[in-house]
Design brief:
This protein is α/β, with parallel strands linked by helices and 456 residues long. It contains 15 helices and 21 strands. The strands form four sheets. The protein has a six-stranded parallel β-sheet with strand order 7-8-6-9-10-11, with helices on both faces. A hairpin with a 2-residue loop joins β12 and β13. α4 packs parallel to α6, α12 runs parallel beside α13 and α14 packs across α15.
Amino acid sequence: MRAWTPQQVADATGARLLSPPPTGGGPERVTIDSRDAGPGALFVGLPGERTDGGRFAASALAAGAWGILTTAEHAEAAKCAPPGVLLAAPQPLAALQRLATAWRRQLNAELIGVTGSTGKTTTKDLLLALLRPHRRAVASRANYNTEIGLPLEILAAPLRTEVMVLEMAMRGSGQIAELGRIAEPDVGVIVSIGPVHLELLGTLEAIAAAKAELIAALKPGGTAVVPAHEPLLAPHLRSDVELVSFGDAGDVRLVHAAGERVAIDASGRRIELEVSFTQAHLRRNLLAAVAAALAVGVTPTGRVELELSAGRGRRIALGGDITVIDDCYNANPMSMRAALDDLAATAEHERHRRRVAVLGDMLELGAAEREYHAQIGAYADRVGVDLLVTVGPLAAAMGERFDGELQIAGDASEAAALVGELLTPGDLVLVKASRGVGLELVCEALAAGADAGAGS
């Protein structure tokens, strides 16, 4: 936005320009953190539950910010600060969102929105990996997928961006619709529909309707990428949008997989890739990513590198040939089953001695939460888990339908102290729960124990 004038920025946000600007150019970047508001930055002071960001407008200008965007009260108070562009809006968040939409239109890039009950982050990352060798592409960072984070990611896109991939999170009805209004997507990817946020939405049908707000946000002629044969999405499909399905018997499907080599059939076109993973759920996410890449005119080729971040299935090698699968970022019944499948497949392929699962509470599952947890216990038993450690009051119900060795921990701290004592050489350990359980403590304790053993 450096080429924009302050008045253009004001017009884009719907804000009032309170004083003659000290500069004729626009901002280089946008931030909501006053600590990051140095030269070239437009600081947006957002009201919050605990504090009002507008209170820091003057300090942002003192740090050399290009300007501030906040409520009239705080913008007026900032007039005594060093010179900068002063923009006042009754709702700074709405102004930020309008600015993002204006920048998205200025870029004229193709925009892909990605949502789903599980798998949206890895699908986004895979899609970026597929696009980058062919197009100038950017993707949203972790957790920048809300009504605040998404506009910031749009505004961070460089001028010559050709494709943007934006993750879209959902906590309730209407939220993806709001993100869609900001982003104006050309392609919408729904990775999965499952029992997530049932406590808020009540039924799987309501969850599907909330995710399908992404389909409603597409322009006529856009592309919707959806799981094949997903009946929950059927009421939300549109005749004026191209539909591409992925998965078994879908338009984009896996026809061959041998180690890290996969062959995909995309409506009769064969695509062969080399990937850095073998997990079945990641291969399925790859199909969604391939479908979206094709929708923006990119035919994926070559090797696809996916670097899993902490808490999202990353492998941690410990001493004694013990391997930990750190998948503790979040959990729901769908992702729990997928992770247990991965545990079983990896243990068989790598010939680990025991399959150990440290599983914590899955949150926001509503009235049937106990039954969902009991079903996971039965599934763990079915895939051959040798030792199950449950963490939390809900996860304890997993033990009711698990016939193997069982240990019960009340919380993450107790589990962190317990699990290391239970492991034996050759174990493969899955650690997974909802984010609020904090099972990263278990992974950290196991890694620290391994480091201490190596140094002794």
